[in-house]
Write a structure and sequence with these properties.
With 230 residues, this protein is α/β, with parallel strands linked by helices. Helices cover 31% and strands 15% of the residues. A 7-stranded mixed sheet has the order 3-2-1-4-5-9-8. Strands 6-7 form a two-stranded parallel sheet. A hairpin with a 2-residue loop joins strand 8 and strand 9.
């Protein structure tokens, strides 16, 4: 049985006070795909406990059936809002560590030492690391034992700057994710059409561009995990 660690944010507001949080579908699709296979899923966050949900991700135009069903599930919402802390799970073994997104992750993922330690150890054990949308920002400052950034030379994707324009969040976000990723000397890939699905595989590193990649990410991650012995 595979074990997945799904990491989510604890942040509920931008610096301006505008509400943000987890982008729900970026968690629910991978959660659903893993549960369908009978795999073990642990939801954790930097501090543990409550996980705010971005109200934008609950709007009818983007709230798909899977996400809506989980949002309406008391058991799932209870699990989400009693997330384990990263400190609690840092010494556990997982087949995949998955960083779910939402703009809020730009505040509590990129400088979390425990998160970086978990990802470094996971990657250096030749196990899967996956991240979607703004969750990719959690990979920015991860350094390997040789002191190189994990992202150096990797083919990856993540929410791009033009998509921030579409989302009307350019003035809210604490930094430009696309630019920050390129500073790490990555091979940055993006969908030909903004706000459409894009998933990039680079060996044990899998990244998705935006919320519309949630379904494809779930399929790719589970398929890749099934190929692996670890």
């Amino acid at each position: 049985m595979k074990k997945l660690l799904l990491i989510v944010t604890n942040v509920g507001h931008y610096a301006s006070g505008l509400k943000t949080g987890l982008w729900l579908s970026e968690l629910t699709h991978i959660y659903h795909a893993a549960k369908e296979k009978g795999w073990s899923v642990t939801i954790a966050s930097p501090k543990g406990g409550e996980v705010p949900i971005d109200p934008e991700s609950l709007k009818p135009l983007v709230l798909d059936k899977i996400s809506k069903d989980y949002y309406n599930s008391p058991a799932f919402m209870n699990e989400l809002n009693h997330s384990k802390s990263l400190e609690d799970v840092k010494n556990e073994s997982f087949n995949c560590v998955y960083l779910a997104g939402g703009h809020a992750t730009m505040y509590d993922f990129p400088h979390d030492a425990t998160l970086e330690e978990i990802i470094k150890n996971q990657y250096e054990k030749n196990k899967m690391v996956a991240a979607i949308c703004h969750g990719v920002g959690g990979l920015l400052n991860v350094k390997l034992s040789n002191n190189d950034y994990l992202l150096k030379g990797k083919s990856i994707t993540g929410f791009d700057w033009f998509e921030e324009s579409i989302a009307r969040r350019k003035k809210e976000v604490p930094f430009n994710l696309e630019a920050a990723l390129k500073e790490r000397n990555v091979h940055y890939k993006k969908a030909f059409i903004p706000m459409t699905s894009k998933v990039v595989i680079d060996d044990n590193l899998i990244t998705g561009q935006n919320p519309f990649s949630s379904k494809e990410m779930a399929k790719v991650v589970t398929a890749e995990l099934e190929k692996k012995g670890n």
